[in-house]
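Input record (Table S2, row 45):
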Amino acid sequence: MEYLSGSKQNKGFYKCKNCGTFVELKEYNTLPPCPTCGFNKFDNK
Ligand SMILES: [Zn+2]
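Output record (zinc ion complex):
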């Protein structure tokens, strides 16, 4: 499954599809762009 930054997602870890950096959401919130490369697509861990 694919997750886009700017969309609301449940808490958990999301892995950047471009560079592999993990982003953690600590609560239901807007998924930010990747902090490392700015990419906008993520996989769930
Ligand atoms: Zn990235």
